[in-house]
Design a protein that fits this description.
It is a single chain. Helices cover about 75% and strands about 5% of the residues. It has ten helices and three strands; from the N terminus they run E-H-H-E-H-H-H-E-H-H-H-H-H. The protein is globular and about 60 Å long. The N and C termini lie far apart (about 65 Å).
């Protein structure tokens, strides 16, 4: 390639999920309901952590940022998907497709690192409680957050810098409801085997490796707690179970989509809907409903908002 994009394709068409009216109606209701719930739940968590002094700790700081990334990644995919459900021609411009992939991967990469950071936070809190506030200082939390966004940006750019220059001369139909690298690459007019391998390594194997690292870290924490006090094992399990659920929900679809060698369009679409709509809603639910401090803080915030509204 000479560095110039010789594409004659100016837009891409999505096949969507199904042509059945019943399935489309069900999907619309499901997606709209959970997207609105996702916005409300994650926004409430961010506002609660920001406004309540009792939650100004490293764990809740990281939780608020996880909610922000969940809100962001859902907003990259869900509005367009919901808007397109009943449309006969589901199209997106070339620039819009590239932008969707860029933001999807930068936010996804950031959340990946953020989940690892949250696992490190729990390790310090459980295994080194006396040093917790020293290690997880405000400065350290900000540095870890900045590092997660930088890594997410690098993860996204290293893929798109090669993809954006691919020539596209038709067809322009994506068997999906959003733009992502595996199917986007296959529409190029040249042999893309090396690029497909790069995407598999960059997105698939990194997701798998991160998931394995996280599971090993949780096992290490539990073994460490068990050695010191078997009575504390149940408490550690209760604390970590929510993290393990969130990690599984996030990494499971990513690992399958980017590493599974066989074409499974319907399964990919189902996992993509789950990852774009349901997972960003379940993350705050899993954390907040298992956390007494967060629930109490939310009640205080809601009470304050009601009082403020009555006064005004």
């Amino acid at each position: 390639m000479d560095g110039v994009n010789h594409s004659v394709v100016s837009e891409f068409e999505f096949l969507g999920i199904s042509n059945s009216w019943d399935i489309q109606l069900l999907l619309f209701l499901f997606s709209f309901m959970f997207y609105v719930a996702c916005i409300i739940a994650n926004t409430l968590i961010v506002l609660t952590v920001a406004s309540d002094p009792h939650l100004h700790s490293p764990m809740y700081f990281l939780l608020a940022n996880l909610s922000f990334t969940d809100l962001s990644v859902s907003s990259v995919i869900s509005p367009k998907m919901i808007y397109d459900i009943f449309r006969k021609h589901k199209v997106i411009s070339f620039g819009g497709c590239v932008s969707q992939m860029f933001f999807l991967h930068i936010i996804g990469g950031t959340e990946m690192v953020l989940l690892i950071t949250m696992a490190f936070d729990r390790y310090v809190a459980i295994c080194k409680p006396l040093q917790y506030l020293t290690i997880m200082s405000r400065k350290m939390c900000i540095l870890l957050l900045v590092a997660s966004w930088i890594i997410g940006f690098i993860h996204s750019v290293t893929q798109l810098v090669f993809i954006i220059k691919l020539p596209f001369c038709g067809p322009n139909v994506l068997d999906s409801f959003y733009c992502d690298l595996p199917r986007f690459i296959k529409l190029a007019c040249i042999d893309t085997y090396r690029l497909e391998f790069m995407v598999t390594v960059n997105s698939g194997f990194i997701s798998l490796g991160s998931f394995v690292i996280l599971i090993i870290s949780y096992i290490f924490i539990l073994v460490t707690v068990w050695k010191h006090s078997s009575a504390g094992l149940s408490k550690a399990l209760s604390t970590l179970s929510s993290h393990i659920m969130v990690v599984t929900l996030f990494f499971g679809p990513c690992i399958f989509v980017y590493t599974w060698p066989y074409s499974t369009s319907h399964v990919d679409k189902l996992l993509a809907v789950f990852d774009a709509v349901l997972t960003p809603f379940l993350n705050p639910v899993i954390y907040t409903f298992r956390n007494k401090d967060m629930k109490m803080a939310m009640r205080r915030l809601c009470s304050q908002l009601i009082i403020y509204r009555k006064i005004s």
